[in-house]
Amino acid sequence: MSTERDEAEGSQPLGIPRVAIVGGGLAGLCAALRLTDLARESNRSLDITVFEASDRLGGAIETLHERDYLIERGADSFLTKRPIVRLCERLNLAESLIPTDVRYRGALVLRNGKPYPVPEGFGLMVPAKLLPILTSPILSPKGKLRLLAESLIPAKRDDRDESLSSFVRRRLGDEAFERLVQPLISGIYTADPEKLSLAATLPRFLEMERRYGGLIRATLRRRGAVAENDGSASGARYGLFAGLKGGMEELFTALAKQVEISATVVTGARIDRVTREGEKWCVETRSA
Ligand SMILES: Cc1cc2nc3c(=O)[nH]c(=O)nc-3n(C[C@H](O)[C@H](O)[C@H](O)COP(=O)(O)OP(=O)(O)OC[C@H]3O[C@@H](n4cnc5c(N)ncnc54)[C@H](O)[C@@H]3O)c2cc1C
Predict the structure, then answer these.
(1) Nearest 5°: phi and psi at 243?
(2) Residue with CA closest to ligand 1 atom 1
(3) Ligand 1 atom nearest residue 285's Cα
(4) Which domain covers residue 277, as residue numbers?
(5) Where are the alpha helices (DSSP H) in 8-69?
(6) What CATH number is attached to the domain comprising 183?
(7) Is the Cβ atom of 121 under 6 angstroms away from ligand 1?
(8) What's the domain count of the chain?
(9) Which residues of the chain have pLDDT under 70?
(10) ipTM value for the complex
(11) Is residue 98 part of a domain?
(12) Which of 51, 62, 230, 278 lies most in the core, judged by the most C-beta atoms within 10 Å?
């Protein structure tokens, strides 16, 4: 194992600027592609190196093929209103984009070792329908009553941000948070909802409380006016998502191929330290 010291100089007046990108997941590869595109558009040269600690690119995204099954170990689809669709077009993957299959939309959560469908109409944290909540085996009678009492909970008065967990526990109760909302949210953000900012992640629910006084009130007031949830879907708004025919690996394989044309990609290279020495940034990697 050798220790390598790589000095990435922000902008040398005479030399070619060097850029070190730490991580070969989607963010790192997209950053490399964007930089090479910008450099080409402005007729400049950049010396870009992507350092990836593991022996494969893609980070949290990994597609497995087993017999006739395509299995995603991470993300399986993405919101079509995000720039990722433009990225697919840029990578000639537009033909591979597929919408979610309406027959299989919906989410299941595990309760006592068994998967149960999320109550119909329960969109992340808004109960759009009463009966499916009342008949769902996921919540106890007490948990159901607490959830449905949401419209009686006064709106928070101050403008301070709060965690996603704090918002949901406050409005829908602990049980609805732990048994329903937390599994749905962690499937989207794969992060601890105690640490996720509500304003940064799901501002539309914050807006519902601020504007209408609560989630149920907002749904009742907006019903008909906004097609937020047609009342039958549950979980995330799957109609707004798309995937790729060959799985998400299609995306990072095409991305990596494009990036490797104009940048150096090193796998098995964990960056241990990034330090600044005068005008220079030093990136230290221990490569195998
Ligand atoms: C189970 C799961 C399901 C998901 N489902 C969806 C979904 O359906 N739709 C959606 O939009 N999003 C989904 N996500 C989120 C999405 O996959 C991630 O937001 C995205 O892939 C993150 O990309 P990233 O490049 O920021 O991070 P990562 O993919 O985590 O990549 C970071 C990379 O950096 C490398 N690295 C870390 N430290 C160093 C270091 N010191 N030196 C060198 N390399 C380093 C890591 O090895 C890794 O390869 C899901 C995530 C998971 C885990």
Answers:
(1) -130, -170
(2) 74
(3) 42
(4) 2-76+249-287
(5) 26-41
(6) 1.10.3110.10
(7) no
(8) 2
(9) 1-14, 223-238, 287-288
(10) 0.97
(11) no
(12) 51
